[in-house]
Amino acid sequence: MNIKNYKRKIKFSSLILAFAMARCSNLADGGQSTLIKELNNAAGNKKATLFVRESGATVPDSYQISVQNRDHVFEKSEVGNAFVVDDNHGQANLDSASIRFHWVSNDTLEIEYDKRLRIFNQTRSINEVAIFYNPK
After folding, report:
1. Which of 13, 20, 71, 87 is deepest in the core (most CB within 10 A)?
2. Claim to verify: residue 42 and residue 102 sit in the same structural domain
3. Do residue 83 and residue 66 come from a single domain?
4. Tens of pLDDT, residues 8-32
5. Pair (86, 110) in one structural domain
6. What is the pLDDT of residues 72-98, one digit of tens each?
């Protein structure tokens, strides 16, 4: 192979790689979160938020829960830090009735969810809050 063809192939491969990386980054950051429910603990110093993360045509929507300090401001780019699920390829309904949560105490949150949901993240403790899960 001569040097001219080699350089041309390197340039082409670099362009393909750059395009692929840009597409992957768009897929990862392309979602938008919409707040469904926010619930403060009795002390008012922590809150749990349930929201839907809409990710576009190639990735299914997911329901997510975050546990934050009370002064945290929800953003459309929010990603759940405690609980993340989807509809498990249509096996479960993904709506606000499929996930319920309540504060058991100021530092304990209980999350009830449809056991058919596919779980991506199920954190047991975050932000000084213990989290218990109850599949139904």
Report:
1. 87
2. yes
3. yes
4. 655 555 445 444 444 443 344 568 9
5. yes
6. 999 999 999 999 999 999 999 998 899
